Amino acid sequence: MKTEQELNTNILHITMIIQDRYPELSKYLEEMPVTIPDEVLPEISPKTLKTYYDTLRSMLHKYISASRGRT
Question: Which of 2, 29, 37, 53 could tie 6 with a disulfide, CB 3.0–4.6 Å?
Answer without folding.
Answer: 2
